[in-house]
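Reviewers of the previous submission asked for a worked example of the structure-prediction workflow described in the proposal, so we include one complete record here. The input consisted solely of the amino acid sequence. No template or homolog information was supplied to the procedure at any stage.
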Amino acid sequence: MSTYSFADISASLIGPGGAISLGYGSGNADEGITVAMAASRNTMTVGADGEVMHTLNANKSGTVTLTYLKTSPVNAQLQALYDAQTLDSRLWGKNLITVTNPATGDVTACRACAFGKRPDLTYKKDGDTVAWVFDAGKIDTILGTY
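From that input alone, the workflow returned the following structure tokens.
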């Protein structure tokens, strides 16, 4: 029987102004780390006679969402990096985010990443989470085995 544990997840962000550890032990919320593709890799066109044509789209872009507990020190690190990178357009969109699971061999590399926007902040009775969304120019994944 195979098992999965977030304790095996290692993740990092490297970009102009810093390197930040993002995986297990960083104050991740239950939502963890989500990597999503922006578009389908295929376009299917159906002809008038019912024949089909498939087109492989080159788009490998998507989003990476990093969700942390309100009290995680990673929030301050990401905010400082966001502030530094917005000072000079030459620093923008040059982040690399990697997510790996050494126990299974999963590797996801997200290149040409830029902060989507400053996250929404909620102050209420119970502590909340902070979600950092990045736009990724190219996402490549190799899935291992369990």
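The radius of gyration is 18 Å. We consider this example representative of the routine output the project will generate in years two and three.
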